[in-house]
Amino acid sequence: MDLTGYPQLGGRSLHIAHMLWGGLLMLAALIILLAFLTKAAQRTAALVGGAGFGLFIDEIGKFVTRDHNYFFPPAPALIYAAFILTLLAVHAIRAARGYSQQEYLLNALRQMEEVVLHDLTEEERDRALWYLERSDPSHPLVPALRQLVEQAALAAPRRPSWFARTKRTLAAAYRRLSRLPGFPAGVVAFFLVQLGASMFWERLQGTRVPGPGAVRLAHPHIHRCRPTGFLHRCRGVHPVEDCAHAPIPARGV
Predict the structure, then answer these.
(1) Which domain covers residue 3, as residue numbers?
(2) pLDDT for 251
(3) Is residue 253 part of a domain?
(4) Is residue 227 in some structural domain?
(5) Per the domain annotation, does 229 fall within a domain?
(6) Which of 85, 157, 220, 230 has the fewest CB atoms in 10 Å of its CB?
(7) What total number of domains does the chain contain?
């Protein structure tokens, strides 16, 4: 963004923040999930919603500071912490409770989508049978679904792409790592230390005494100064009061 001069959408009077685009993408993900049932729709919604959430939380620095400082140093740590806490929450939900027989049956029913689409792979068939083994055997759907899955024609095996192989390898490594006893606590501790260090650095920068001739500005179109040789240039779009040493014209003096 620095190389491109912090491009903006909206012209001189408007600024369409990318947080709004993030909200639009998350809304699109909800619509996709509500309107379609296939796994392809779920994957598309996950990608669109994830990109939207990334655009949304990227501007967290503007909403946790009084001066709407997009470049607030602890902001990256807060973003990482949000993602990691989300991951740990999902991990805790999966580990804290088991699935009921009814839930196993519902998961087996979802595998029937591939039977209807004639795209059932051997892995998906084994997964469906595994779900049915843990379902209530007295339920009338269980024997019928088992017979249907066992008799269904399998899709022709396809050699997985390098992306699929890499994803499978990384997923297996993560599962092994996440089973370690101190994994959740270690992840939380790492990001808490990073957040504390960032906030301490911001505090230290805020208490630094400005040099001779420093000027404190409060201009709606100045964000921060960057040295370029003997001069300084200011860049940004949010009002702050910590841009110092910038050459400004003297007017009305």
Answers:
(1) 1-58
(2) 45
(3) no
(4) no
(5) no
(6) 230
(7) 2
Domain membership flag for residue 208: no
Other C-beta atoms within 10 Å of 185: how many?
Answer: 10
In the chain, beta strands by DSSP E: 224-228, 231-235
Ramachandran assignment for 50, one of left (phi > 0), alpha (psi -120 to 50 degrees), beta (any other) = alpha
Structure pTM?
0.60
Question: Is 53 found in the same domain as 2?
Answer: yes
Tell me which of 156 and 7 has the higher pLDDT: 156
Most confidently modeled of 133-147, 168-182, 213-227?
A: 133-147
Please report where in the chains the tokens 């740590």 appear, as a residue.
77
What CA–CA distance (Å, rounded) separates 73 from 133?
52
Q: Does residue 234 carry a pLDDT above 60?
A: no
Q: Give me the count of residues in the chain.
A: 253
For residues 56 and 10, give the distance between their C-alpha atoms in angstroms, rounded to a whole number: 18
Going by C-alpha positions, the residue among 236, 237, 211, 239 that lies closest to residue 226 is 236
In angstroms, what CA-CA distances link 105 with 72, 122, 145?
49, 19, 9
Which residues lie closer than 8 Å to 82 by C-beta, 6 or more apart? 57, 60
Q: Which residues face 232 on adjacent strands?
A: 227
Q: Residue 164: helix, strand or coil by DSSP?
A: helix
